[in-house]
């Protein structure tokens, strides 16, 4: 089982639970991506792994006494590439826990009437779709190995347009061949389409990815990438989007991602699937981090019960994680959660910052502490001071 009986009694159950399901299968490997996912997996093996994931959702949630969930996120990988019958079974299963919100990631090239039917988008009003667009510039898509055409993107947006109040789109600024004009044209197209939610990232050079070891001659440098990201950010704000986290924007607070908000507040969640991560706060202020083993062989073998790695996060480290995650958000960190979980020690880092050179970047109200917008720009330096 995901944890032992002794630890089970120590779970802090004061906050609702969320579930993350990881489907680590892709059609191809994008050159900037460091997520745990594989391309070209044999379809039979993939079906076996997914069947096991479905079984483990039922098993582990029963074992952990999680009869209700506040939110479910199905990510990857590319969840939209799995067989329609398994996709429907997965959505039906997670909906049986009555979550307020379910989100599933899709790739534009997979969007079809059949996919929309398999997901039950018309039936499940709490179901959100998160689609990875990245850019509409074909040369940039080609340069990072994304095998999708801009025409496929337009077709996907058209098919999903009845659902755009439940649609989130992902964009990346600073891809090869990007100029400020291209990035602004991407933004213009998107804000005209007007999805309820957007995630905007500056291209990050992650270790071990193709982009880091194979120099691309048309890659904007770090400063250009950051300028392009900031220009995009200004356009989104000017178009009426609210920035509720460093990379996330929504039309209204009702459009915020419940799952992300849950993570940023370090509320309890479990992850099911190869490489999926979950964090369960314990009553003594520490936490248990549980990660699904990555080997597909383990997940496809019905007799193998050794599916998880477990790591303890000590109380001090867990307090730091609250600041690291919470300071990314406009809302910030709940004082009540800090107090409830850690007593006076929860607010000690905040008191330290109030006496430091960073005090001008702090803001608080009765319920939350956070950084100002300027403060979020120097987040890394502020966090270093807390280490
Ligand atoms: S970016 Fe998405 S589609 Fe591309 S390799 Fe990573 S998980 Fe797969």
UniProtKB/TrEMBL annotation:
InterPro entries: Coproporphyrinogen-III_oxidase (IPR034505), Elp3/MiaA/NifB-like_rSAM (IPR006638), HemN_C (IPR010723), rSAM (IPR007197), rSAM_horseshoe (IPR023404), rSAM_sf (IPR058240). Pfam families: HemN_C, Radical_SAM. One of its GO terms (cellular component) is cytoplasm. CDD domains: Radical_SAM (cd01335). It comes from Entomospira culicis. SMART domains: Elp3 (SM00729). Residues 11-242 form the Radical SAM core domain. PROSITE patterns: RADICAL_SAM. This is Coproporphyrinogen III oxidase family protein. GO terms for molecular function: 4 iron, 4 sulfur cluster binding; catalytic activity. One of its GO terms (biological process) is porphyrin-containing compound biosynthetic process.
């Amino acid at each position: 089982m995901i944890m032992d009986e002794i630890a089970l009694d120590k779970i802090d159950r004061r906050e609702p639970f969320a579930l993350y399901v990881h489907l680590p299968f892709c059609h191809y490997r994008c050159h900037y991506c460091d997520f745990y996912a594989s391309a070209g997996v044999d379809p039979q093996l993939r079906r076996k792994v997914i069947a096991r994931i479905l079984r483990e959702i039922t098993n582990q949630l029963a074992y952990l006494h999680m009869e209700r969930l506040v939110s479910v996120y199905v990510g990857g990988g590319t969840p939209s590439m799995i067989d329609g019958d398994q996709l429907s079974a997965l959505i039906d299963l997670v909906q049986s826990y009555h979550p307020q919100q379910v989100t599933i990631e899709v790739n534009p090239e997979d969007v079809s009437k059949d996919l929309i039917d398999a997901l039950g988008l018309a039936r499940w009003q709490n179901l959100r779709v998160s689609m990875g667009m990245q850019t509409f510039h074909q040369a940039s898509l080609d340069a990072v190995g994304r095998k999708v055409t801009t025409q496929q993107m337009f077709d996907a947006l058209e098919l999903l347009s009845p659902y755009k109040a439940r649609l989130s789109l992902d964009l990346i600024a600073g891809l090869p061949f990007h100029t400020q004009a291209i990035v602004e044209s991407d933004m213009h197209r998107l804000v005209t389409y007007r999805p309820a939610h957007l995630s905007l990232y500056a291209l990050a050079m992650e270790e071990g990815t193709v982009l880091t070891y194979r120099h691309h001659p048309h890659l904007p440098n770090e400063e250009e990438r950051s300028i392009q990201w900031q220009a995009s950010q200004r356009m989104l704000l000017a178009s009426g989007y609210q920035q509720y986290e460093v990379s996330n924007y929504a039309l209204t607070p009702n459009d915020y991602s419940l799952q992300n908000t849950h993570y940023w507040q370090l509320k309890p969640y479990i992850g099911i699937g190869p490489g999926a991560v979950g964090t369960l706060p314990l009553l003594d202020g520490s936490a248990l981090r549980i990660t699904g083993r990555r080997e597909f062989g383990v997940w496809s073998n019905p007799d193998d019960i050794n599916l998880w790695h477990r790591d303890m996060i000590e109380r001090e480290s867990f307090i730091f994680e609250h600041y690291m995650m919470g300071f990314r958000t406009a809302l910030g960190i709940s004082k009540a959660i800090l107090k409830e979980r850690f007593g006076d020690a929860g607010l000690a880092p905040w008191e330290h910052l109030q006496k430091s050179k960073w005090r001008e970047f702090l803001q608080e109200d009765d319920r939350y502490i956070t950084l100002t917008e300027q403060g979020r720009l120097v987040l890394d330096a502020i966090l270093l001071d807390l280490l």
